[in-house]
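Notes on consecutive records. When two proteins share a document, each keeps its own sequence and its own token line. Never mix them. Below: protein one.
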Amino acid sequence: MARRRDVVAGLAALPLLSFSIAGNVPASAQEGALQGDVIATENGDITIHPVEHASLVIGFGGEIIYIDPVGGAALYEVLPAPTAILITHGHGDHFDVPTLEAIAGTAPILTNQDVFSKLPDALKGNASAIANGDQTSLNGLVIRAVAAHNVTDDRLQYHPVGIGNGYVISLGDKLVYVAGDTEPTDEMLDLRDIDIAFLPMNLPYTMTPDQAVEAINVFKPKIAYPYHYGDSDLSVLEKRIGPDTELRLRNWYPNGQG
């Protein structure tokens, strides 16, 4: 998965270290349309659609990938139906059976073993589990599971080793990393050639902004999105991430909660 690749013009042309705040889907959004950042690949555009907290939707060609969809069906009713669903782990802000029952349809679900064991039979038939470090294909997209867990001794209770997944998704010539709930694991720090990274940063459950800065400056994603950040002060990232990474701040809490 780690490999040298040329960055296509669409991404290379993006300004480094540009900071902006954007809202989520406007009330007037056309039904079935994704709203958000568009990033070019050699095989078509990626659309990044924040939903709330740790939930997001990624569009790529005909694929609509829901990641950790929670919060009830109403949050997703104006969006296109999922063609695939990724779930990082079993905490309630990442995994919610009623939401899945309302929106999943027949979309395949990829998750960890803990979540798989908790799925109702109607969803389990379209689901599969993947362990840290394993790789699979979902609708023709290559997906690798990356270890997601705490590393600080007094936080290991929140996300023990070997349970949660992050995911690296190959979309055209781009690699997208969704970290899940984690601090900087060895596996995260060993990542290379990541084009887009979604990184959580709120205490006591995930990284601090300082940890996120250190991780970003080690594995150097081309674009970094803070998500699952609660009330964390993200100005630390604005000041300290290196020139290899563009920071994109987006509003994951449209109602003001953090």
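Protein two starts on the next line and is unrelated to protein one.
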Amino acid sequence: MLFNLFNQPSEEIQYLGTPYTQDCLDAIGIILQTQIHIEKALLLSCNQAHAYLIKSHGNTYIIRSGFSSGYSGEGPKGLASSLQLLLKHNIEVDEINISEKLMKKINHSSLLDADIEIMLTTKVVRPTNIYEYIYAIYKTTEYQVKNDRYYPTELPYHLIDSRILDLALKFNDDPNRSIFNAFIRLENIVQNRINSDKHSSALFEYAFCSENPPLICKSEDKRASQATGRIFPNIYKAFRNEHAHNEVSKPLKTLMREFLLINELYILESEAIQRS
């Protein structure tokens, strides 16, 4: 009974990825996108199979062995890409050699806390092979610097103003409609707040940019406050009308940036002081 108790798989480990390389690359992208501080990244090598142990503040992740080396193919290419991604984020990667038994436990999600401790205290491979894995495929460490395809394509919900969170949640279904409705909703909010029947860019010109604007963007610097106020009509004129009159055909990431611009208007509006 005691033997079974102390040999239960750890409940502190989060397993990500599958035996497929792309799934493991996507998992690393999620970690890099969501974890503020990566404390340690270990490449776990067993013969020509590779997995990862990644520790962030309060979390331990295991990426299963969807990576490989020593031949040409998706496994080695994925390994090189994963290393470049981590280096792109200024994360130092060390490599350790592990047993076939440990690699099997990784892939079956059955590591013990003691197994993690063993890996964290195992002597790292020196000299390092990290760059050799990269150069074998890409001949450079710069390939991923301008490549963002492994990050999750999702809006950062924790940054979205609560008044348009519902539009953010439906964004992928119809980004054009979400953007257009966000503009319309902001118009209504500002109209009601200053009791005005103006609309479109004229409303924002009056509300934030007139001689004595009803809404003053928070700033002790008058020029900075005026410049911030001009953001409202400028963004409205730059992006709103095309969504009102046409089905805009743009990459999803471009539309996300537009939605985030509108989200910033909501935040600035909420912080604006109403002239008494």
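For the record: Confidence is low (pLDDT under 50) at residues 1-5.
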